[in-house]
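Sample pair:
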Amino acid sequence: MITPSISIITIVYNGLPFLKESVASVLKQEYQDWELLISDDGSTDGSREFLDTLSDSRITIYKQEKNLGIFGNLNFLFGKAKAPISQILCQDDYFLSNDSLTCIIEYWKTADKELGYVRFNHQLSNRKQLVKYQDEYIPPVIKSDESAILFYIFGNIPGNLSNVSVRTELIQKYGGFDQRLPFAGDFEFWRRLSRNVDMGVDKRMVVYVRRHPGVASNYLNLKGELLEQIGQIVSPLYNSLIQQYPEATGLLKILGTLNYDALSRDTGVKRFVQSRDKTYLKRLNNVSNRAPYAYRPFLRWILYFASFGGRMGRVFVAKRLIQKTNFQLAFNKQVKDKITR
């Protein structure tokens, strides 16, 4: 059996009409040594009928009889992938150009063996100042022993699943995506993986990540369902960082409150003003009251108002935190080494 150079992983649930464009973008690739693995998770919108029309021998289709969820379905497909490298391509998204796979393959040809996965498309246009700072600051390679502070500051750095290309074997080696975290399983796994391997960050745009009203991120956190799971990820991260950088405990707590309470508090306040629904705020308070990274309720409200709902001050605190932990020195050395090679 011939092993392809790259496996393309596509999970599907009621994917029409965008699924057709996604598959078409794979078939148009100049680089031809690929396999496309598609797993439908019980679609009822005609997606399965469309998949039945695909006849390319490099495409393998699985139809789940029981809904596995996003991360269960991803674990299933990664277990089927034959190539040493896999690229996730969600059903709504598509390769931007005919040489997208060529770009991905060329990246991996020159990647160090310690590098386990890469986030492409790292050109961030979000209006939030900390997101802009991430775009400017994040190094081209995040070393495993430096990843904790960056994930704490910037959150889920890989972003959308379709941004990510990964060494296939690492998914099973490090336990796969945690299906107990249906809203934050990707954040938890990339953080877990980054404790063991380096992560690449590349600004080249290879996949178009589509935004539309039906995209999962628009409905996964309507009632604050994501908050508890984020707390489960960030709390041990904070605890490990204060052990590693005890001199930065105050800054870590300020940024934790701003990042993971104040911004969400602003969402909860707006929803209460609009509909008098306290559900989101109640869930946030339950999480923050237990979280080691967040201040007590009175101070959380003070920071919320002082930061204008978390929109001001985060970049200042992040810069101070990076200086305090001496990460800047390692970053500067890494960039210098890259330039002088």
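The chain has 14 helices and ten strands.
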